[in-house]
Each structure stands twice: as structure tokens, then as C-alpha cells.
Amino acid sequence: MTPEPDRTPAADGGPPSAESARRAVEAVWRIESARIVGALARYTGDFALAEDVAQEALAEALVTWSRDGAPASPVGWLLATARRRAIDGFRRKSGLDERYAMLAGQLAEGEISAGAVAARDRAEELPWDPDRVEDDVLALMFTACHPVLAPEARVALTLRVVGGLSSEEIARAFLVPVPTVQARITRAKKTIAAAHVPFELPPSEERPGRLGGVLSVLYVIFTEGSTAATGDRLLRPDLAYEAVRLARMLAALLPGEPEVYGLLALFELTAARFPARTGPDGEAVLLEDQDRRLWDRSAIRRGLAALGRATAVGRGLGPYGLQAAIAACHATAPSVQETDWEHVVLLYEALGRVAPSPVVELNRAVAVAMAGGPRQALTMVDELAVSGRLSGSYLLPSVRGELLVRLGRTAEARAELELAARLCGNVRERSVLLRKAAALE
To answer: Residue 285, class by beta-carbon neighbours within 10 Å (0-12 exposed, 13-18 middle, 19+ buried)?
Structure first.
């Protein structure tokens, strides 16, 4: 008789429950989803199938674990169950071919490691090859962020298969309907299949170019979490911290890539200010009004360490590293007035050379105003306005209004701030702009 696998009893010693099973499944999936889907994708050679059978295994776990309790090796159980589902799918399509036979052998290994069957003369095994875990996770990231996908699809797919977020969580974070997120994920998987994108790490000569796409997806996720584009919350910390977690994972997998550390440093240093960026009612608190004693000093130390690693590994800082260096100037300054604004100006000038954009120019103008006064900065902002490169963005009239306030041009400043409020999609930021405009009357 096959022995029963070890099971983890409920915390109170009583029988397992649906709620305890749900918590166990969510915990395992959030931590190990990338490794689970990555291993399944390598075993099956089919990215979409791997994600589908992993989700089916989760659904089965909710039922089985609520009845029997969580297994001793939850990951092994999920892998074995998912592999069985994959085998069933292959068997329905093509019978017992070579692929089915190969997967069947791997299934046996998974069942042994999961405790589903007794091992015969075999050492205890992990549910995946430890020599391939890093490659699997990297391949998963590069696949989810493949250039054939639209940017919004890359974000949704990365959060789903690498981050382990549900469609509901992604939809809630980006304030879009759940069916929209599900459609994006479905289209992304179909696009990857139609383009015959292999589940593998890109060749070494292609990685630097492809890595930029991975980093940009994480940057978009964190940016939305740190300052929501729309809605009634300034911050979406769960989304931002998910980007931090993924960046930490990427840094551990690619320790020789300076821009990965630059991005991680930027995330840590920016997230360190989260506790002081909102008041008790969720209202936005401006940098000059923040209680810096609330800043997360541990996150600042981690960010500075990552920035030091980016500097040590690379030949000069890249775009993310330079942004992190700017964030470090703010994080280490006792106050806005005591910030080294001259150095911030130099960093923005360097950033403008390596990654030119109108937003970088606008931020440089802000730094110039803080370092030397608003007049030169206003000239820079006016040139940006004439170029039309930030047309429709609330950022330009917001900055221009602040500069006009400092120059004593109150009526013009009020008009600019009111325009910025009309263009701003975030309720909290809009309230700040309207309060400033009202104070000028």
C-alpha cells in the first residue's frame, strides 16, 4: 500500500479548513510562482500551457488541502499536480508519444519529491533541478517581457506569471476592469505562441538589449505604485513593493548587471519615503512638508548599498543608476533646503545625455530653480512648453505655476495650477494643486 504523504495540520490542531488552505496556497504561490511556472515551462516547452496547468493545480490545491491539510512539500505537490494536468493534455492531443513518455518520467520524480508515492532506493530530491532554477526564472522574465508584446501586456503578464498576482489584483492596481486584464494576459500568451517564442534565456549577445525591456516593465510597475496615475489614492504600495521584490530577485540572478542594481536602488530609496508621503486621511504630503523621521532608514541603507554595487560593477551609472543617485541626494539630506541641489542639477544633466526626455528636462529645471533661483528655470520650462513635448501633461503647468509663484506673478501662477489640476488624473494630487491655486486668491 502506498503510504499517505505527510500533511501539515491546522494551526489550532483541528481539522483543515477552506480558509487555512486558501492562505497556504496564496503564500506558496506568491513566493514560488516564478519558479513553479518556470520549471513547468521548461518541462513542457509551452509557456502558455505551463501557466494554465499551474493555475489548475492551484484550484485543485484549494479543494484537496482544505480536506486533507497542506502537504509537507507544497511546491512539490503543485508541480506534480500541474505535470499530471499537462500530461493529460498532451495525451488527449497526441497519445503516448515521446513527449508524454518524457513528462511521465518527470512526473514520477515530482510525485516522489512531493510525497505522493514512496521513493525506492532514491535520495530525497527537490521538486526542481537546483542547477536550473535561476535560468528558469530568468527565462520566465525575459519571455513575459518579450518585445513582441505590447507594453501593457508585458506588465500584466509579468505580474501574473512572475509576480504571482491574480487578475483581480492587477486590475485593482491599475484601475481597469478584470476582463481587460484577463484579455491582455490571454492575448499575450497567444502572441508568444504564434511568434514561436522559445522558453529560454536569450543568447548572451542579445541579453543587454532584452534586459532593458525587463527593467522597463519593472519601472512601470513601480512608478504606478509610487504615484498612481489615476484614482483616489496617491500610493499603491502593494504594487510598488511587488516591483521591489522582483527587482531584488533579478539582482540576485544577475549580479553582474549594474543597471539592475541601479533600478533596485531607485526603488528602495523612493519607497523609503512612502510612510511620510501621505497624511492620516490619505492626502498627499509634499517633499518639503514631510516628516523625515518617518522615512524608512533600513530601505535607505539598502538603496545606498545597491547604488554602491551599481557604481562598483559598471563603468559609470546608467539611466536607472543616475535616477537612484538623485534619489540618494534627497534620501540623505536633512531637509529640502540642505539638499545638494548643485549636484542634483549635474546628475540630471548626465541623465539627459544618456536618456533624454522632456520629463528629465522638466525635473532639471526644478533642480535649477532650487539651486539658483526660478528665473532661469522658467526660461527652460517655457522652452519645453513651446516644443509641445509635454502637451496634455499636468506636470508642466504644475512646475510652471510653482515658478511663477516664486516670481510673484500670482494671477498667472493660479491659472497654471488650475490647468494642472484639470489635467491631473489622481484625486490626491489634484487636491494639492487646487489648494495651492486657492491660496493665491
So the answer is: middle
The pLDDT, as a whole number, for residue 103 is 57
Phi, psi of 188 (to 5 degrees): -65, -45
| Contact present, 144 and 189 (Cβ < 8 Å) | no
Whole-number Cα distances in Å, 60 to 22, 64, 108, 143, 160: 11, 6, 19, 26, 19
C-alpha cell recorded at residue 83: 505535470
Secondary structure class of 190 (helix, strand, coil): helix
Residue 71's φ and ψ, nearest 5 degrees, are -70, 165
248 SS3 class:
helix
Helix (H, G, I), strand (E, B) or coil at 97: coil
Q: In this structure, are residues 400 and 436 in contact, taking their beta carbons and an 8 Å threshold?
A: no
Looking at residue 43, its pLDDT comes to 84
> Quick check: helix, strand or coil at residue 176?
coil
| Residue 76 to residue 282: CA distance in whole angstroms | 42
**How sure is the predictor about 2, in pLDDT bands with cuts at 50, 70 and 90?**
very low
> What is the pLDDT averaged over residues 184-208?
88
Q: State the residue for C-alpha cell 508621503.
A: 277
What percentage of the chain carries pLDDT values higher than 90?
Answer: 58
Cα separation, 427 vs 62, in Å, equals 38
**What is the pLDDT at residue 165?**
84
121-134 residues labelled b (16+ CB within 10 A) or e (exposed) = eeeeeebbeeeebb
Round to whole Å and give the CA distance between 324 and 267: 8
- CA 251, CA 258: separation in Å to the nearest integer? 9
- For the entire predicted model, the pTM comes to 0.80
Collapsing DSSP to helix, strand or coil, 71 comes out as: strand
Q: Which residue has the higher pLDDT, 373 or 118?
A: 373
